[in-house]
Write a structure and sequence with these properties.
The chain has one domain. Helix content is 74%, strand content 0%. It has helices at residues 3-17, 28-34, 38-70, 76-98, 100-106, 117-128, 133-163, 173-186, 193-197.
Amino acid sequence: MSEGAKLLLIVFTMVFTENYVLVQFVAICPFLGVSQKFDSCVGMSGAVIFVMTLASAATYLIYTYVMVPLGLAYLSTIIFILVIAALVQFVEIVLKKYMPPLYKALGIYLPLITTNCAVLAVTLLNISDEYNLLESCVDGFAAGVGFGLALILFCGVRRSLERANPPKAFQGLPITLIAAALTSMTFMGFTGIADKLFA
């Protein structure tokens, strides 16, 4: 498989067939917490894409050129968490200074990117899948786009739910979780497509 085809395969799988939120059920907290308002969804998506892409590049470089030569590969989880935390602080400072309305709209969810397991998952899987620097960055970017797609799609679903009148036992969180499950089932339709497209 050529390098270009491999990059396209990474993008397709991370957005559709291996979507962290809707297929792997990672990062459910921000998915449920931020998906009520479209503006917050777009802002959170942009912040996650930025952090995932930068974290993928930074952790690859640190792992390859510092940790492996020093025999510190076993500390990857701890070091990657520290790198992600530093990147999130950087994003928070930039948003607070240049985009105060978005910073206020994201509220508590912006610092939660630090503990967003999808960001940590993408950095760890880049290493375990033995991606090079370019593949790691593409994987991080595509995983962030997949997260954003899931968030924006579910925002539309939640707006439709506001007009619905479910039985009392299903109102609130129960109907939201059922809607999330149904949304995630739609992504199962992409299973197997990647193998045919990029074979």
